[in-house]
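Hey, I'm writing a tutorial for new members on how sequence and structure tokens pair up, and I'd like a real worked example in the thread rather than a made-up one. If someone can provide the structure for the chain below, I'll link this post from the tutorial.
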Amino acid sequence: MKMLHTMLRVGDMQRSIKFYTETLGMELLRTTDRPEQKYSLAFVGYGGGNKQGEAEIELTYNYGTSEYDLGTAYGHIALGVDSVTETCDRIRDAGGRITREPGPVKGGKTMIAFVEDPDGYKIELIETSSREI
């Protein structure tokens, strides 16, 4: 088995595509619009996505729905970065929201931070050189 994608429901497709591509530096890999079924999809990711063996995020917009209750079960998506501090600075400069400033994980040495996408989904940034495996 192989991880292919994680699906997130979004309230504004263009806003979400802009965040994931411009703020987080992902590529827009492909889109699909299904007007008869009243939804649109956009797949974003790094390094060419599934075609290159990388996981993707599927952004799903259901026509007429501008927000969702995220519930209490969702945790976060994790992204590996070279420098958590530099990445947070870049995200902040692009208008992104940092919800946990860079620092070590509680009880450990791995450097992390958290950001939020426009729909409130949490994204953990992990400094790969400090990661305890």
